């Protein structure tokens, strides 16, 4: 019997509830595994006792990145960790978008502003500021050129906390077509969803946002699948090492899909909310990875 840990985080007022976790544990147990949910920073968990540790909803990692990566390194040293720790290290810093762009993957144009750097903000169009290490739209906000001073104050606040800021043009296609998330598990296409725009005008960067508004099932187009495949092919070390992946896409100015984010750490799978029928496929892939 395989022992499997699905890793989550401690409940907190600003952390979403992982509604996929209980049904996924139950499905794994129904399939004959010994499955438990465990918090990544629980000092009483013996990670070596598991055949496989799968990151599921460590949705507080972005404010504790160094600590989280130290834990991941320890975990990977004593058991199998999915996804691999070097992938986690690469994917927890959104400067990977620059690497994808250099590899020829269509991506949202991004400028990175490290602490000590002076940001150059667009003066002719709406733009977004967010941290290079972030999740759930935390510390993300949408601005117009007239709101430059407010945006600069946000960058200064992030720099004071040691965070690198990202500046991106606001992609107008989000308002019309939303964001599409294409999910893979066990190396195979799992399902896709579409969601509405997350960042509304005038909402403060430190306000809590609804990370996945207006969720609905989505059938990805051939162009969306092609861009998702190109993004995964550019992952260092090869996509075949990934147990799971989520590619978030939006329509660029040319109307073609481009990568907003590549989620390889703790992506919401949208099982309970949209695709409960995918539970068996996810459990099967996890059991196969556990050996």
List the helices and strands and how they pair.
Elements (H helix, E strand, L loop, with lengths): L2 E6 L12 H10 L3 E6 L12 E6 L7 H14 L1 E3 L2 H7 L4 H7 L8 E3 L13 E5 L9 E3 L4 H13 L4 E5 L3 H5 L1 E7 L2 E8 L20 E2 L4 H12 L10 E8 L5 E7 L15 H12 L1
Parallel strand pairs: 1-2, 1-3, 3-4
Antiparallel strand pairs: 5-8, 6-7, 6-8, 9-10, 9-12, 10-11, 12-13
Helix pairs in contact: 1-8
Strand arrangement within the widest β-sheet reads 11-10-9-12-13
Measured distance between first and last alpha carbons: 10 Å
Beta-strand fraction estimate: 15-25%
The number of E-state strands comes to 13
The helix content is 25-40%
- Shape descriptor: globular
Number of helices: 8
Mean pLDDT equals 93
Helices and strands, in order, run as EHEEHEHHEEEHEHEEEHEEH
Largest sheet: 5 strands, antiparallel
Poorly predicted runs: none
Instruction: Give me the secondary-structure category.
Output: alpha+beta
* Rg calculated over all Cα atoms: 19 Å
Describe this structure in words.
The chain is α+β, with helices and mostly antiparallel strands. Helix content is 27%, strand content 24%. The chain has 8 helices and 13 strands. The radius of gyration is 19 Å and the shape is globular.
